From TrEMBL:
It comes from Brevibacillus reuszeri. CDD domains: AAA (cd00009), PAS (cd00130). Residues 71-126 form the PAC domain. This is HTH-type transcriptional regulatory protein TyrR. Residues 117-151 form a coiled coil. It comes from the Bacteria. PANTHER family: C4-DICARBOXYLATE TRANSPORT TRANSCRIPTIONAL REGULATORY PROTEIN DCTD, TRANSCRIPTIONAL REGULATORY PROTEIN. The keyword DNA-binding applies. Gene3D superfamilies: 1.10.8.60, Homeodomain-like, P-loop containing nucleotide triphosphate hydrolases, PAS domain. Keywords: Aromatic hydrocarbons catabolism, ATP-binding, Coiled coil, DNA-binding, Nucleotide-binding, Transcription, Transcription regulation. InterPro entries: AAA+_ATPase, AAA_lid_NorR, Homeodomain-like_sf, HTH_TyrR, P-loop_NTPase, PAS, PAS-assoc_C, PAS-like_dom_sf.
Length: 467
C-alpha cells in the first residue's frame, strides 16, 4: 500500500508542483511549488474535491486526475491558464498508485511550468533563423572578403583601417600601428609595404622586445670586423642596411631602451648611421612602420619613451580594433585558416555551424592569434574531418562544449545555461546578470545551481558573486 506518511520533506525537493489526490479525487497532499503555481494556500486545497476546487484557473476543464482514474494509466496533458502574473502553460503528468488489489488508491500529479521553456524554444528558433540568414548573407557577400597576405576584411571598422593603410602606402611617412596584441598589426604593416613603391624592396620585421639590450645597437646598425669578442670575422649588416629601399617594421617599439631610442631618432632624421666599430657613414633609405600595444602617451609622461621620437613615429597613427569589436569577421578568419590548413597538410577538414556559432560568442582576449591557435588545436583533435562543438577547448568554453544534448529540452537548457554563464561573467553579480536577462534573481540563482549540478557534476558552486 502506498503510504503518505513522511512525504512532506520529500515533496519539497521537487522543482515541479506536486498535487496528490485519493481514488475519489479528494486532494490529500500538495507541495510548496504547486501552491506557488496555483496561488493558493494548503488549507484552501487539502480535503477539497479536485473537480470542484481547481488550484489553477485553466482555459479547459480537462483534468489529468480524472483521466487517470478513468483510464487507469499514466496521463500527460498540456494546460493553459491566466493568472495575475499573466499567461502560463503547464505540462501535467498524472501517475496512478495501485494497492495490493491492483486498485487505484492515489493519483500523483506533477505540474511543470512550461512558459519559460516554450519562450526559450521560440528564442532558439528565431536564433536559428537569424543564423541561417547570416549564413546566406555570408554566401552572398563572399566576393567581398579579402585574403591578401592574411588580411581579412569584412567589418566597417577594418574597412576604415584598410582605407587608411591604402592612403599612407603611397607616401614614405612613418606609420604607427596601435592595438592589442594579436590584432594583426604585422599583417597591416605588410599590406602597406606591398602597396607602396617599396614593394620590391625588403620587408624586415624587428621585435624590439625580443632582442637583448646589449645586442640591440649591433643588430640595428651592424658591426665591423673585430668590433667585439665573438663578432663575425667578416662583420655583419644591421637591420637598416638590410631594409634599404624597403620597409623596417619595428614591432613592440615601446620596449626599445632609451639609449637606442636616441640613435634611432638620429637615423630617422639624418638618414645615415655607422656600424658598431666602424668609421664609414652609411646612407639608408628606409621606410619605418612601428607598432605597439602599450600606452606610449603615458610612457612619454613617465619619461620611459622619448617625446621627440614619439612625435617622429606618430606621424600617421592607425588604430586596429580588437577581434571582439569585429566578430562578424570570425567566420571569415575560420574559413581562411581552414583553407590554409588544408593546403599545408593536404587534407579535407570542415567545421560545423554550431561550432562557428560558439566561436563567434567568445570575446577572444588574445585576438586573431588566439583564434588561430584554437583553430589549429581543434583541427588536430577532430578525428572525422569535421570540427564539432565538443572539440572546443575546455579552458575557453567550460564543460558545456563537450556535452551532447540527448533531448530538445536538454538542448534548450544548455543554450540557457551558456547564456547565463556569459551574463554572470560579464556583469559579475547574479543581480545584474538576472536583470540583463530579464529574469528574477532567485530564478537565476536557482537555475544556475540546478544546471551546475546537472551539467558539470559540481554541486559546490562558487557563490562569492551570487549576490
Amino acid at each position: 500500500m502506498f503510504a503518505l506518511n513522511n512525504l512532506d520533506s520529500l515533496l519539497e525537493l521537487f522543482f515541479d508542483g506536486v498535487i496528490i489526490t485519493d481514488k475519489d479525487g479528494m486532494i490529500v497532499k500538495v507541495n510548496k511549488a504547486y501552491l506557488k503555481i496555483a496561488g493558493k494556500t494548503a488549507d484552501e486545497l487539502i480535503g477539497k474535491d479536485i473537480r470542484s476546487t481547481v488550484g489553477i484557473r485553466l482555459h479547459s476543464n480537462e483534468s489529468s486526475t480524472m483521466r487517470v482514474l478513468e483510464e487507469k494509466r499514466p496521463v500527460t496533458i498540456m494546460q493553459r491558464s491566466t493568472s495575475d502574473s499573466g499567461y502560463k502553460e503547464y505540462m501535467t503528468t498524472g501517475m496512478p498508485m495501485f494497492n495490493e488489489q491492483n486498485e487505484i488508491e492515489f493519483v500523483v500529479n506533477c505540474v511543470r511550468d512550461m512558459t519559460e521553456l516554450n519562450e526559450l524554444k521560440q528564442h532558439l528558433s528565431r536564433a536559428e533563423q537569424m543564423n541561417q540568414n547570416y549564413l546566406e548573407e555570408i554566401k552572398n557577400l563572399k566576393q567581398q572578403q579579402e585574403h591578401e597576405n592574411g588580411l581579412v576584411i569584412y567589418s566597417k571598422a577594418m574597412l576604415h583601417v584598410k582605407e587608411a593603410a591604402t592612403k599612407v602606402a603611397s607616401v614614405n611617412s612613418p606609420v604607427m600601428l596601435r592595438g592589442e596584441s594579436g590584432v594583426g598589426k604585422e599583417v597591416i604593416a605588410k599590406y602597406i609595404h606591398h602597396r607602396s613603391k617599396r614593394a620590391k624592396g625588403a620587408f624586415i620585421k624587428v621585435n624590439c622586445g625580443a632582442i637583448p639590450a646589449s645586442l640591440m645597437e649591433s643588430e640595428f646598425f651592424g658591426y665591423e670586423t673585430g668590433a667585439f669578442t665573438g663578432a663575425n670575422k667578416e662583420g655583419k649588416p644591421g637591420f637598416f642596411e638590410l631594409a634599404d629601399k624597403g620597409t623596417l617594421f619595428l614591432d613592440e617599439i615601446g620596449d626599445m631602451p632609451l639609449d637606442l631610442q636616441v640613435k634611432l631618432l638620429r637615423v630617422l632624421e639624418e638618414q645615415e648611421f655607422r656600424r658598431v666599430g666602424g668609421v664609414k657613414t652609411i646612407r639608408s633609405d628606409v621606410r619605418i612602420i612601428a607598432a605597439t600595444n602599450q600606452d606610449l602617451e603615458e610612457m612619454v609622461e613617465q619619461k620611459t619613451f622619448r617625446k621627440d621620437l614619439y612625435y617622429r613615429l606618430q606621424v600617421y597613427p592607425i588604430l586596429i580594433p580588437p577581434l571582439r569589436e569585429r566578430k562578424e569577421e570570425i567566420p571569415f578568419f575560420i574559413e581562411h585558416f581552414l583553407q590554409r590548413y588544408q593546403e599545408k597538410n593536404a587534407i579535407q577538414i570542415q567545421i560545423a555551424q554550431e561550432a562557428i556559432h560558439v566561436l563567434c560568442q567568445y570575446d577572444w582576449p588574445g585576438n586573431i592569434r588566439e583564434l588561430i591557435n584554437v583553430m589549429e588545436r581543434m583541427a588536430i583533435s577532430c578525428s572525422n574531418g569535421e570540427i564539432l562543438p565538443d572539440h572546443l577547448p575546455r579552458e575557453l568554453f567550460g564543460n558545456l562544449g563537450r556535452i551532447i544534448p540527448k533531448t530538445f529540452a536538454e538542448e534548450v537548457e544548455l543554450f540557457e545555461f551558456q547564456g547565463m554563464k556569459r551574463a554572470l561573467a560579464l556583469h559579475k553579480s547574479t543581480r545584474k546578470a538576472a536583470r540583463a536577462l530579464q529574469m528574477s534573481q532567485p530564478t537565476f540563482v536557482r537555475k544556475m545551481k540546478q544546471y551546475e549540478v546537472k551539467y558539470t557534476n559540481d554541486p559546490k558552486m562558487d557563490h562569492k558573486n551570487m549576490q
